[in-house]
Structure formats: C-alpha cells, structure tokens
Amino acid sequence: MMPVVGADLSKRLVPDELWELAAPLLPSFAARPQGGVTAPCDERAVFTAVVYALTSGCAWRHLPPTFGTSPATAHRRFTVWTEAGLWRRLHRAVLDELGDRGEMDWTSAIVDAASVRAKR
Questions:
Q1: CA 103 to mean position of chain CA atoms
Q2: 44: Cβ–Cβ under 8 A, 6 or more apart, which residues?
Q3: CB 4, CB 68: distance < 8 Å
Q4: Tell me: the pLDDT tens digits for 69-111?
Q5: DSSP secondary structure letter of residue 119
Q6: How many CB atoms are located within 10 Å of the residue 83 CB?
Q7: For the segment 107-120, what is each residue's pLDDT rounded down to a tens digit?
Q8: Where are the alpha helices (DSSP H) in 2-114?
Q9: Structure pTM?
Q10: In this structure, are residues 81 and 87 in contact, taking their beta carbons and an 8 Å threshold?
Q11: What span, in angstroms and rounded, lies between the C-alpha atoms of 38 and 54?
C-alpha cells in the first residue's frame, strides 16, 4: 500500500527496491507493558515520512500530513528503528545488493578514522 503522499514523491524517496530491502529489517511491535499494542499503521508510509525528514532537514513537527502518519509516530518509529540498529543493517543490505549486481567497485575503500582504534 502506498502512502497518501504523491506516488511520484514517495517512489523517489523510497523506491520499491529500497522498500524490499528495508521492510524485512523493520522491528515488529509487541504489546506495551501497560497494555495494548502500537496502533497499526502503514509501515511504508511511516518509513517514507522518516526518510523525508532525514533527507530534507524538515523538523518532525513540520512533517506534511500528506504522508499519512503523524509526526509523533514518525519520530517514535525513527527512535525505535535507530535503537534497533536499522540504519546500519539497511546500509549493509544496500551495499550487499549493489555488490551482488556488480554495481559497486570494491577495489578501493575509505575507512573513517573515527572507527579505527589507535595503537598504543
């Protein structure tokens, strides 16, 4: 199911190929300790709203209602997904997919010095 936002914008932000990689990585939501469950919503719509906020710099509270999800839901899911390591796993899945297609040149790499421990 497509989000309420325009199909062309949605497809540009989250093409089907990206959604196929991201959907299985999204954590499922269980019952809350105080009872009840997270209200069901269109996960792709929420994911698209999150991608929009992250790529446009839009404040969560200013997310357009055309995404079909509330700013609070989008921010809450972003927080849960971040804590679950979604972005790191999705990045790896995209790189693996590009490598499998032969669209990634693995002959050189740049390593971020912040992630490499200094020798003592």
A1: 22
A2: 1, 2, 3, 14, 19, 23
A3: yes
A4: 999 999 999 999 999 999 999 999 999 999 899 888 777 766 6
A5: P
A6: 9
A7: 776 666 565 566 66
A8: 7-13, 16-22, 43-56, 71-83, 86-100
A9: 0.76
A10: yes
A11: 23
